[in-house]
Write a structure and sequence with these properties.
By secondary structure, the protein is an all-alpha fold. It has two domains: 30-109, no CATH class; 118-237, no CATH class. It has helices at residues 12-19, 30-45, 50-75, 83-116, 119-146, 157-183, 199-205, 213-237. Helix 6 runs parallel beside helix 8. The two termini are 41 Å apart. 14% of the residues are buried.
Length: 239
């Protein structure tokens, strides 16, 4: 990702911090995590560090097995199953128990989000997704350009980036406001700075050539800002 896009995307951690809710949280699947580690390990094996990585991996496995075998013989002498089979059974049992616990935690947090999810917040979360999608589109376009396709270059890039910065500021401000009103239903909002948006600046930057990539991205940013402004006005009327 190019430097001018760094920090523009509203990350999952930032979104949860702004809303004070575990929104968009995905269930952790142990097998997926193991696949990621396995993929990284295989990539390391194919690099110049292959010998070191293989030695560390093999040593860790052997040490763990020996330690498990010793503990098994000291504390669980009544078990007649071979230690290697016991280790496999224990691994599956621990994995299943861990996955169950992760699911229960995820389910509890999902219910909490559903209970506190207002209509306004739901709309804003969709706008955040649309905004992040624009960032990803630009990033992919940059990668295509760097692969040797200069014809896909985004014209007036600085204007697009500036529009996205303004849009992010509006989204962050809207999320902060929604959280205040949600957590303090009887609270009368006195900080007018939260309601100041940059819509006028965005409108002035809008281009008329909708067919261009620059125009499409800028208009997408403008549409998000318009939706956010509409929701902000609705929030103010509910005070």
């Amino acid at each position: 990702m190019r430097d001018d896009l760094q920090g523009l995307e509203i990350s999952q951690d930032e979104l949860q911090r702004l809303t004070n809710l575990p929104v968009n949280e995905e269930l952790v699947i142990i097998t997926k995590t193991l696949k990621i580690f396995a993929k990284i390990y295989i990539q390391k094996l194919q690099s110049s560090e292959a010998a070191t990585v293989a030695f560390i991996g093999f040593s860790t496995f052997v040490f763990s097995y020996i330690l498990f075998d010793i503990l098994l013989k000291i504390f669980l002498t009544w078990i007649t199953v071979p230690s290697w089979l016991s280790l496999i059974i224990l691994s599956f049992w621990v994995g299943g128990l861990t996955q169950t616990i992760l699911y229960l935690i995820w389910k509890t947090r999902s219910r909490f989000v559903k209970k506190n999810l207002t209509n306004s917040l739901e709309i804003m979360l969709k706008e955040v997704n649309r905004y992040n999608t624009v960032i990803r589109v630009i990033d992919i376009n940059d990668q295509i350009e760097e692969a040797g396709n200069p014809e896909v270059v985004i014209k007036e890039r600085e204007g697009v980036i500036e529009a996205l910065k303004l849009t992010k500021a509006d989204l962050v401000r809207a999320l902060k406001t929604e959280r205040i009103l949600r957590e303090n239903k009887s609270f009368i909002l006195s900080n007018t700075e939260l309601f100041v948006n940059n819509l006028a600046t965005l409108t002035a930057m809008q281009v008329t050539e909708q067919a261009t990539e620059h125009g499409r991205l800028l208009n997408e940013a403008l549409q998000i800002a318009l939706d956010v402004q509409h929701e902000m006005k609705r929030l103010q009327t509910q005070r």
